[in-house]
Amino acid sequence: MKLTRVLLPINSQGTTPSCADAAFGLARRFEAELEVLHPCPPPAQRLPYATELSPIYFEAYLDVSRKQVEYEEKQAIAWFEKAAAKWDEVESQLLTVEGLVGPAIAQRAKTADVSVLPTVSAADDELFDEARDAALFSSGRPALFVPNEASGHIGETVVIAWKDSVESARAVAAAAPFLESARRVRLISLVADDEPEDETAIAMANYLIAACLPVELMSLRLGDREVGDAILEEAGSGVLLVMGGYGRWRWQEWIFGGATDYVLRNTDVAVLMSH
């Protein structure tokens, strides 16, 4: 299997160096096209909430906002041109969309094989917070989260954090292009001390072995560790971590919770997630 399109959301300053390298590197490796997406709230959506302005001040504020939009678009173009020149062998294009960040990214991510975004620890700002949320929970597609520490060829060793869930199964399916070229695949199953081994983990390992993948099954006891901490501890360094992305409904928005949030805040390896 191969990737056809990689989506790289950016803000006006671009994205983190490791995230950009990961996205352009994947596009080159899989001969995929790279779509760099710059979502930019239009002038009318930048007005302060709960603020009433006279028509004169309203137009003045819109004029200032229009200039800000133009400035941000010029910054994004400059960043893209510099990145594209560095990766001139990659077919890439910049798409600027005026609109709300979440819906814009969710829409474009639906027609990409994977969205590439920085982890929370790498870029903790409003745009990337919304981008991570939209790409993972509102697109139906996987997202690759890249920390600052990530470098080199992503996916020589793939670690699957398995859980008997739809999200985990989708994550494994999304990882197929990486699994096919991996030199080593480890499937780890974390169970509580008072629980039996997860039979679905054995079944998934057998399924991947039948697909001629070099899979090692590791059934590990959670002990007194938190799930997210245990996942990162057992995954190790220099790997691609594959896991389901989980959230919960609160205040009518999807937010990261539990192991998902912990991993995205603390990982030093790239993480491929699917919801």
- Alpha carbon gap, first and last residue: 21 Å
Q: Helix/strand-derived class?
A: alpha/beta
Report the β-strand fraction as a percent range: 15-25%
Spatially, the strands of the biggest sheet line up as 3-2-1-4-5-12-9-6-7-8
- Annotated CATH architecture of the largest domain: 3-Layer(aba) Sandwich
Largest sheet: 10 strands, mixed
Q: What is the number of beta strands?
A: 12
CATH classification class of the largest domain: Alpha Beta
| Chain oligomer state | single chain
Low-pLDDT ranges: 248-256
Give the tally of structural domains: 2
| CATH fold call of the largest domain | Rossmann fold
Q: What's the alpha carbon Rg, rounded to whole Å?
A: 20 Å
**Count of DSSP helices?**
9
Name the average pLDDT: 88
What is the chain-wise order of helices and strands? EHEHEHEHEEHHEHEHEEEHE
Q: Summed up, what is this model?
A:
40% of the residues lie in helices and 25% in strands.
What is the element layout, followed by pairings?
Layout: E1 5-9, H1 17-29, E2 33-40, H2 55-86, E3 92-98, H3 101-109, E4 114-118, H4 126-137, E5 143-146, E6 157-162, H5 166-174, H6 176-181, E7 184-191, H7 199-210, E8 215-221, H8 227-235, E9 240-244, E10 247-250, E11 253-256, H9 258-266, E12 270-274
Parallel strand pairs: 1-2, 1-4, 2-3, 4-5, 6-7, 6-9, 7-8, 9-12
Antiparallel strand pairs: 5-12, 10-11
